[in-house]
Amino acid sequence: MLSKTEILEALRGRLIVSAQAYPGEPMRDPRTMAQVAASAVSGGASAVRVQGLGDIQATRSAVDVPVIGLWKDGKDGVVITPTYQHAYAVALAGSHIVALDGTRRERPDGLSLAETVKRLHEQTNALVMADCGSLDDAKAAADAGADIVGTTLAGYSGERPATEGPDLELISAIRAAELPALLVAEGRIHTPLHATAAREAGAHSVVVGTAITHPATITSWFTEAVEG
């Protein structure tokens, strides 16, 4: 079993691939997502990020790299692993890292982010990735004990406008804050140039999802280009 230090070092300077499908889509099946994740690992992904307990379990059996797990529940507000019970279940399903909403918004169960992180660290072996939407989120998440801070919710939580590509300004600001947590760039990274820019802005690691693992969206890009 990898230690927490070994997991974090495995991510540093590397690509993480998010393999997720939305409800109702043809690929919305744990076995399919595990196969997609395994294909990403074959291409060099250092870790994979998957959603849902079934996907986490299937992916753990399919890959030998760290699995970042989450559980989306709800449609508005805090929906990424919104409560401690969600987070605990994600850890028990086999996630090496539990990804959860790392914004400063009120959590549905009334627990603070710090309380949630503390319980996870005490009751599981999982690390915690805080999906943040701003510099203040990242600072608060690091203070709360999160092992990783991500820019996942930049442009989605209401604090910052959605940029066309990754929020390079936010990445730079978080890196300049010299937080103790690993900094992961995530969100709207659609090309290799975007990934390079995110690293140059200061991200320790980069997550790419849609541009690698979501055929419907990728096809729509090409459809628009061909059909005008």
UniProtKB/TrEMBL annotation:
The keyword Isomerase appears for this protein: yes
Enzyme class: isomerase
Keyword Metal-binding: no
Reactions mediated catalytically: an N-acyl-D-glucosamine 6-phosphate = an N-acyl-D-mannosamine 6-phosphate
Coiled-coil boundaries: none
Family assignment from sequence similarity: Belongs to the NanE family.
Function: Converts N-acetylmannosamine-6-phosphate (ManNAc-6-P) to N-acetylglucosamine-6-phosphate (GlcNAc-6-P).
Name of the protein described by the UniProt record: Putative N-acetylmannosamine-6-phosphate 2-epimerase
Organism: Brevibacterium sediminis
Gene (name only): nanE
